[in-house]
Design a protein that fits this description.
6 helices; Cytochrome B; mainly alpha; 2 strands; transmembrane helix; single chain; about 75% helix
Length: about 180
């Protein structure tokens, strides 16, 4: 599997998970029962695994995409910042999730499979980290929406096929 193919899979796998975590909160799943809490936790583990894999790939090989010849200097700079903010934002969400486990009063498990961290029992820190984690995730979701808008603008206004780069080949005829 090529790097680009792997990144497409990660990209399109993280998107529905992001939507899930935007729409479904831990309090929502707690009301649904233990099975929903477990499902939410498993989805979180998948999200974090993909995010950390994407960050590791970026640290090892840099960005896979280039800005494209039709972008002007400001749009090139925006492209540079946008993609890095996304990657580091995903890493930050994973990091604050780890800190939630670290500051918890009891052992938390990602998906019931992996212990998140040794709990230190710091309720005030846990509350603060929880707020940071939530705000960070919603800010990241805003960056994701802006990122999508940027690439749609490129595709429509500049006609540079920006959407074909990450879309599966089966969808190319619609773009």
């Amino acid at each position: 599997m090529t790097r680009r193919t792997a990144l497409k899979i990660v990209h399109w796998s993280i998107l529905p998970l992001t939507a899930w975590f935007l729409l479904v909160t831990p309090s929502d799943v707690a009301r649904a029962g233990a099975w929903a809490v477990r499902l939410h936790s498993v989805l979180g583990l998948i999200f974090v695994t993909l995010a950390l894999g994407w960050t590791a790939d970026y640290l090892r090989r840099g960005l896979a995409g280039r800005p494209g010849p039709k972008l002007g200097p400001r749009a090139r700079r925006l492209h540079w910042w946008l993609h890095r903010v996304l990657i580091w934002g995903l890493f930050g969400v994973a990091l604050t999730g780890f800190l939630l486990g670290l500051t918890a009063s009891r052992q938390l498990w990602a998906g019931g499979i992996v212990p998140i961290a040794m709990p230190l029992g710091l309720p005030d820190a846990n509350d603060l980290v929880g707020r940071v984690h939530a705000v960070e995730f919603y800010l990241l979701a805003g960056v994701v929406a802006f990122h999508a808008g940027f690439h749609i603008w490129r595709h429509v206004a500049l006609r540079d096929n920006a959407l074909r780069i990450m879309a599966p080949k089966r969808l190319h005829r619609f773009l």
